[in-house]
Amino acid sequence: MLDVVILCGGKGTRMSAVTGTLPKPMVPVGGKPLLWHVMRCFADQGCSRFVLCLGHLGDAIQDWVTRAELEFRVDCIDTGRDSLTGERLLRARELVSGPCFITYGDGVANVDLQALLSRHRQGGRLATVTAMRPRSRFGVVDIVDGQVIRFREKPIMEQRVSGGYFVFEPGAFEFLGEGPLEAAPLSELASSGQLSAYEHDGFWFSVDTPRDLAELSRMYEEGDRPWLRS
């Protein structure tokens, strides 16, 4: 299975009450760092090497990696406190020799990695993005002629978004710059015909706010853990 590069350097400003002293990937979920849960999504499917792109409060992540008894290899690289995601990946490029998975340190999912990799290879393109269907943060009102005919509380949206589970060939790194991965690099890969999509309709959860963290923690405590296989 491929190496996994995880973006762990952001400041997590939407959770500033916590991330002022603790990097977001280290916030606890069920007694373990969120980052551990992210890594398990891959390790449970055979991934054995991780490259962590550190930045904001990166020493806390490095210390945890040193102390934790992990059954897989973890390499950490300081990619700069204020770097954006594209630059972080560029700085980690030297630690990856071939195609790799790329993800963020704050999202968990039950993506079938073998199916994702198969789709990537079938596409024959430089990169593949996993396209998720997020749940709306708001109730949706369906209206006909001024009458509400249906109210749906936070439904699954029809439009897909990037869920942060990527496969990159070495050539895809040529599209990266100092800006965010999510802007010019992905747009240029798409316009060049070099970006495939793998559609995932299963579980996906991104921790962006304290409310998200509380919800994921509640799920874990209640035994509802679709992102974990072991």
Write the layout of secondary structure elements.
Elements: E1 3-7, H1 16-19, E2 28-29, E3 32-33, H2 34-43, E4 49-54, H3 58-67, E5 73-78, H4 85-92, E6 100-104, E7 107-109, H5 113-123, E8 127-132, E9 140-144, E10 147-152, E11 161-168, H6 184-191, E12 195-200, E13 204-206, H7 210-221
Parallel strand pairs: 1-4, 1-6, 4-5, 8-12
Antiparallel strand pairs: 2-3, 6-11, 7-13, 8-11, 9-10
Provide a descriptive summary of the structure in words.
- The strands form four sheets. This protein has a seven-stranded mixed beta sheet with strand order 5-4-1-6-11-8-12, sandwiched between helices.
- The chain is an alpha/beta fold.
- It has helices at 16-19, 34-43, 58-67, 85-92, 113-123, 184-191, 210-221; strands at 3-7, 28-29, 32-33, 49-54, 73-78, 100-104, 107-109, 127-132, 140-144, 147-152, 161-168, 195-200, 204-206.
- The protein is globular.
CATH superfamily: Spore Coat Polysaccharide Biosynthesis Protein SpsA, Chain A
Query: Could you say which overall geometry the principal axes of the C-alpha atoms support?
Result: globular
Low-pLDDT residue intervals, each spanning 5 or more residues: none
Radius of gyration: 18 Å
Number of strands: 13
CATH architecture term = Alpha-Beta Complex
Report the major sheet. 7 strands, mixed
| CATH topology-level fold name | Spore Coat Polysaccharide Biosynthesis Protein SpsA, Chain A
Distance between the termini: 18 Å
Tell me the name of the CATH class. Answer: Alpha Beta
Structural class: alpha/beta
* SSE series: EHEEHEHEHEEHEEEEHEEH
Tell me the domain tally: 1
Residue share in helix? 25-40%
Beta-strand content estimate: 25-35%
Query: Mean of the pLDDT scores?
Result: 93
Tally of helical segments: 7
Strand order of the largest sheet: 5-4-1-6-11-8-12
